[in-house]
Amino acid sequence: MAINVKVVERPIEETSYVRATLKGMANTLKHLVGGHRVTTQYPEQRESISRRWRGTHRMLTTEDGKAKCVACGLCPTVCPANCIKLVPGEDEQGNRYPLVFDIDEFRCIFCGYCQEVCPEEAIHLGRHYENAEFNREGFIYDLERLMAQTHPVTEMWDPADPKGE
Amino acid sequence: MSMVTNSLLLQAVIDPQGPIAFWPWLAFTGVKLLVFFTIYMLGVAYLTLAERKISAWIQHRHGPNRVGPNGFFQPLADGVKNFLKEETLPPYVNKAMFILAPMMAFIPALTIWCVIPWGASWASPWGRVDMVLADLPIGFLFTIAVASLGVYGIVLAGWASNNKYALLGGLRSSAQMVSYEISMGMALIPVLLFAGNVTLRSIVDQQAQMHLWNVLTLSIAFLVYLISAFAETNRLPFDLPEAESELITGYHTEYSAMKFSLFFIAEYANMATQSAMIATLFFGGWDIPFMTADNTGAVSFPLVLLSMAIMMAKTLFFLFFYIWIRWTLPRFRYDQLMSLGWKVLLPLALAYIVIVATLMLVLDAAGIDRGLVYGLIFLGVNAVLLGLFFVFLDRGKIVSPANAPLHAEELKRLRGITASRARLSALSGD
User: Fold this and answer.
1) Contact B54 A32 (CB under 8 A)
2) Which pick of B217, B288, B382, B405 has the fewest CB atoms within 10 Å?
3) How many CB pairs under 8 A join A and B?
4) Radius of gyration of chain A (CA)
5) Could you report the predicted ipTM of this complex, rounded to two decimals?
6) In this complex, do A5 and B411 lie within 8 Å of one another by their Cβ atoms?
7) B164-195 vs B139-160: helix axis angle to the nearest 10?
8) CATH 3.30.70.3270 fits domain A57-148
9) Interface mutation vs chain B, best among A28, A30, A45, most B CBs within 10 Å
10) Which residues of A have a CB under 8 Å from any CB of B?
11) Contact check, Cβ <8 Å, A31/B58
12) Residue among B329, B414, B418 whose CB faces A21 most closely
């Protein structure tokens, strides 16, 4: 019922409109002349990101320039977003390697499980966020592209250093 | 023909204070038209930038700073963007009115600019040049009449859009503008009584003669006018026709590109016009303070420029004031808006007319000259009235808060009614 309104008898200072207005105007003017700007001017200035920032992926390579990945299939298994497409291959010596390793960055939720589960420390998330593309196909990173990325990789959570300092 | 012109020119050379001949008048009017409207349109464009910049500064941001040095060419970029954007014409609108509405909002906003006196008259070699485009004898009556035409554009936009939010915005706007126009007109009557004439020039002259601005001698009228001007221009805290949060910007929801931009320009043009009107009516207009040389008819060109600069500064201050208030006060509730207009401002303006008229009658009967003393007496009376205003009206009476209209006994009675109704409905077995 509309009538069941709680009536609060407020003091004059609180019900006054003129005084509140003047006070408010003084406040806004104070902020106007206060100077102090908090905006980060993005392309020129950048906020520093955490060492545990989880951004677009990187595939690490061995000294001879091959992907560290052994196509064990753990990362597509653990991936909750089902964004990793892996087709394993095997060479003459019996070494496994990925024939296809595609990550759909649109599907990826950047949970970092792939990095955590990887026995070879091959696939990593990266400390990187400027990943705009002109078309949707650009967001499916193939093995070549994952290997070509150079940004720093994400650090794993360390129980000894829970805040990442 | 040329002989006539020449003889008229020669005549005018002899008397720079006298009326100007036809051909120089036409030439000067053309120049004034170009200059005033160029300044106006540029000013309106840069007002959008000023609004964004000042808003940003109040919120500790930088504001637009990418186009040109410190965002200086932002209005240009906005204009280009608005011209190049797609014009949408929804299939269910009333096409003729939909197209007509932005123009109807835009044209009155521009028209009022013609009658505002921008400076002292120039004693040119060809005769007296008034720094006003059209020195209408009906003066500010014209501004009130034309300003109220602006509501048609908004109502038509709301109606033609065939959209419930737009219609609500348009209806709110019409109710708001009609309500506040009355108190606005009533607030001007004391000014009219003072000047004894409706031309804006005579109002400026009267303030110069009294050596006191009308804001000091007619403070209550100023306050009522100021509040009504905010409501008339649909600015916060009275921007209910737009009300982004509830009406998705109200009457111009369906508009895009330049049609939308016209509404936007109209709003800013109205702000500029109202600021100039406040400066003229209550802040002495172009009159140069502490100087009497500019009050003796036509003056030299540097003085004209100085008076124009003073007028401009006053106008700019009120434009800043509009933006300042925008970031200070939240939007009124609709019932608060109506009760403020009809229950507070209108009676206040009416009572003030009676007070001012009575006082003028008394002072004239006492034989006091309409000069500084006259003004000082009014100043004293206004100080007392302002004191009363603050003490009596500022007790939750201006804007009804949650507790105001319902007193405890009233509430008890109403609760009794609901309780008995609940019993009745229980008996009837609902």
Assistant:
1) yes
2) B405
3) 73
4) 27
5) 0.72
6) yes
7) 180
8) yes
9) A28
10) 1, 3-5, 7-10, 12, 15-19, 21, 24-25, 27-29, 31-32, 34, 36-39, 41
11) yes
12) B329
What pLDDT is recorded for position B405? 52
- Three-class secondary structure of residue A112 per DSSP: coil
Q: What are the phi and psi torsion angles at B381 (to 5°)?
A: -60, -40
Packing angle between helix B346-365 and helix B219-232, nearest 10 degrees? 150
- Dihedral sign computed on CA atoms, order B313, B58, B235, B230: negative
What residues of chain A lie within 8 A of the CB of B329, using their CB? 21, 24
**pTM (predicted TM-score):** 0.79
CA pair distance A101, A85, nearest whole angstrom = 6
Convert the pLDDT of each residue in B301-359 to its tens digit: 788 888 888 889 999 999 999 999 988 888 887 777 887 888 888 888 999 999 989 98
Chain A residues within an 8 Å CB radius of B54: 32
β partners of residue B122: B129, B299
The answer to whether B331 and B236 are in contact (CB under 8 A) is yes
Residue B151's Cβ-side half-sphere holds a number of Cα atoms within 13 Å equal to 19
The pairing of strands B122-124 and A140-141 is unpaired
CA nearest to A21, candidates B308, B321, B350? B321
Distance of CA B252 to the CA centre of its chain: 21
Is pLDDT of B422 > 50? yes
Please count the other Cβ atoms lying within 10 Å of the Cβ belonging to residue B40: 18
> Do B348 and B220 contact (CB within 8 A), yes or no?
yes
Which amino acid, B94? N
> Both tokens of residue B329?
């006060």
CB under 8 Å to B195, separation ≥6 — which residues? B202, B203, B205, B206
First to last CA, chain A: 56
Is residue B277 classed as helix, strand or coil in its secondary structure? helix
Let me know: does B181 contact B232? Beta carbons within 8 Å: yes
C-alpha closest to that of B382 among B415, B362, B414, B359: B359
Contact B418 A12 (CB under 8 A): no
The residue-averaged pLDDT of B64-83 equals: 87
Q: Which residues, 6 or more positions from B142, have their beta carbon under 8 angstroms from its beta carbon? A: B112, B115, B136
CB A37 within 8 A of CB B336: no
pLDDT score of B3 more than 50: no
Domain locations along chain A: 57-148
